[in-house]
């Protein structure tokens, strides 16, 4: 196989968090500033760290805002789900002997609260979260951290994500990128491969 390391983004790739992320951010902005921005104007926040999103919105008290966002997010937790086909894909990759990893903009606490309850954490050997690098997507730093930690050759790594930030991160790191079309809003994103469904990856790598 060309790719020995299959590395995933989380939000919009492994789990569907879009509704929860955008509506809880909308609630946070309303509570802090009184602004009522439509969800369509907040989609830039998908794929970057919460801190970066709040800074783009001009929020000054980041600590308070992040606390509120976490609280509001929990109110939408019942809308979050693992995408159809993901568990079957992970099982298949495991049988093939692929090493699976995660490179995400989630913090350790967000990862613990928002991802771990779905029970798929054990599939992944190497995980890079927001605190693990000084720079974040679209910088190459998170994927470089993965390469260092997993002792991987970039030619054997495929990164799968749903956002322009994921694509740019992979391109900047010299790593091939597959767009998770099932969770992406934009099929115009630059990618080496376009995957309509999770199981399309099996056809690609075997």
Please provide a written account of the structure.
There is one protein chain. The chain has about 210 residues and is α/β, with parallel strands linked by helices. The protein folds into two domains: about 5-15 and about 80-205, 3-Layer(aba) Sandwich (Rossmann fold), CATH 3.40.50; about 20-80. Helices cover about 40% and strands about 15% of the residues. It has helices at about 20-35, 50-55, 60-75, 85-95, 110-115, 140-150, 165-175, 200-205, and strands at about 5-10, 15, 80, 100-105, 125-130, 155-160, 175-180, 195. The longest helix is centred in the N-terminal third of the chain and has 16 residues, at about 20-35. The N and C termini lie close together (about 5 Å).
In terms of topology, how is this protein built?
Elements: E1 5-8, E2 15-16, H1 18-33, H2 50-56, H3 62-74, E3 81-82, H4 86-96, E4 99-103, H5 108-115, E5 126-128, H6 141-150, E6 157-161, H7 164-173, E7 176-180, E8 193-195, H8 200-205
Parallel strand pairs: 1-4, 1-6, 4-5, 6-7, 7-8
Antiparallel strand pairs: 2-3
Order of helices and strands: EEHHHEHEHEHEHEEH
Please, what is the CATH homologous superfamily of the largest domain? HAD superfamily/HAD-like
First-last Cα distance: 6 Å
Question: What's the rounded overall pLDDT mean?
Answer: 96
Q: Uncertain regions: pLDDT < 50 for 5+ in a row?
A: none
Q: Give the helix proportion (percent range).
A: 25-40%
Rg over CA atoms: 17 Å
Count of alpha and pi helical runs: 8
Biggest sheet layout = 6 strands, parallel
Principal-axes geometry comes out as: globular
| CATH hierarchy: architecture of the largest domain | 3-Layer(aba) Sandwich
Number of strands: 8
CATH topology of the largest domain: Rossmann fold
Briefly note the structural class of the backbone.
alpha/beta
Beta content comes to 5-15%
What is the class of the largest domain in the CATH system?
Alpha Beta
Q: Can you list the strand order of the major beta sheet?
A: 5-4-1-6-7-8
**What is the number of domains?**
2
């Amino acid at each position: 196989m060309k790719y020995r390391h299959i590395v995933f983004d989380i939000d919009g790739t492994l789990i569907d968090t879009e509704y929860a992320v955008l509506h809880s951010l909308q609630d946070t902005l309303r509570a802090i500033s009184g602004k009522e921005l439509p969800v369509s104007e907040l989609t830039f926040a998908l794929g970057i760290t919460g801190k970066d999103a709040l800074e783009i919105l001009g929020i000054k008290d980041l600590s308070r805002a992040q606390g509120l966002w976490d609280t509001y997010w929990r109110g939408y937790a019942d809308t979050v789900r693992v995408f159809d086909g993901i568990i079957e894909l992970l099982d298949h990759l495991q049988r093939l002997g692929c090493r699976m990893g995660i490179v995400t903009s989630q913090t350790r606490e967000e990862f613990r609260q928002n991802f771990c309850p779905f029970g798929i954490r054990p599939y992944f050997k190497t995980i890079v979260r927001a605190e693990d690098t000084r720079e974040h997507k679209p910088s190459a730093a998170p994927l470089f951290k993965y390469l260092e930690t997993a002792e991987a050759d970039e030619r054997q790594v495929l990164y799968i994500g749903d956002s322009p930030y994921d694509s740019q991160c992979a391109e900047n790191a010299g790593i091939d990128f597959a767009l998770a079309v099932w969770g992406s809003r934009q099929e115009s994103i630059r990618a080496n491969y376009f995957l309509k469904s999770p199981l399309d990856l099996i056809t690609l790598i075997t």
